[in-house]
Amino acid sequence: MIPILDRPLVQFGLATAAVLILPLVMRSGTLASEILIFGLAVAACNLLLGYTGLLSFGQGIFFGIGSYVAGLGLVRAGLPAPVMLAVSLGVGALVAAVVGWVSIRRQGVYFVMLTLAFSQMFYFLAYTFSGITGGDNGFLDIPRPTLVGTRLTDPWTYYAYVAVLFLVLFAALQRVALSTFGRTLLAIRDNEARAGAIGYPVRAFKVAAFAISGAVTAFAGALHAMLIGVAPLSNIDYHTSETLLIMTIIGGSANLFASLLGAGAYLLAADALSAIWPRWLLALGLLLIVITLFLQRGLWGLIERAIALVTRAPPPDDPARPVGTNPPVAHAPEVAR
Description:
Blueprint: H1 8-25, H2 29-52, H3 59-76, H4 81-103, H5 109-128, H6 130-133, E1 146-147, E2 150-151, H7 155-178, H8 180-190, H9 192-197, H10 202-228, H11 238-251, H12 256-276, H13 280-294, H14 298-311
Antiparallel strand pairs: 1-2
Helix pairs in contact: 1-7, 2-7, 2-10, 2-11, 2-12, 3-4, 3-10, 3-11, 4-5, 4-10, 7-8, 8-10, 11-12, 11-14, 12-13
């Protein structure tokens, strides 16, 4: 029997509840929108790390490309926002498929270095072709979407727009994770040699996982560019990849809702700490050390343990837990091989 917190409807219900609660407890609609946007990008990162076991430093590539594609289409071509969001999705999938196809040809530290090299290459391409991307200044004056003839300039109106798209893509990622394709990714993550031996085309599955993850990340990047009105060069920097990985670790790779938890915890902590302490990244470093040492399943693992304590059920990492009910965790990513 699947634990109640891991059931798809419960997970989607938690995501919907978070979307509805954020406007009630937060003053800034912009920050609330950022939590959903980065939650989406972290969920895409989770599909690679938590479900496929691939530690990629290339997610920033797709986030930045989504920002630039949306900006170019909206400003230069005057295309509507829904069209550019769809184009961002397609371009992100295409670029991610190419990056993934090359990177997965190596394993371990060589795979990590390949994704890092791609990240640096795309960063300097964006920096060099400043006539297209705006270079160091970023691509400016990106408009917000228009709905029923009204531009969504109000932060909370744009939040509602983002919230609907977030829930649609969250449900889609859930379908992917629960499908035969998603279960095969788990098999590849747990034992790639065995998955290949029983006939699964491991490389094709990994490239497909890259493409889906890149498409969703680029979509999030496009939403972010419309939110802040600019596609900054930093969006395609490898630091964006690092940030998405840190958010994934903070939330935990147990499931997709943990991604939203990680993004929210990171952004809220950054907002609060940066207002009172310029060196707030030191505190973030300490938080990461604590999570790595004592909370390897992230904040979501802490919630699972609290629920298990109340209900007296076996904790999620207890060997006594019924077989097949343990949620996915990010054990042994490629770098450890």
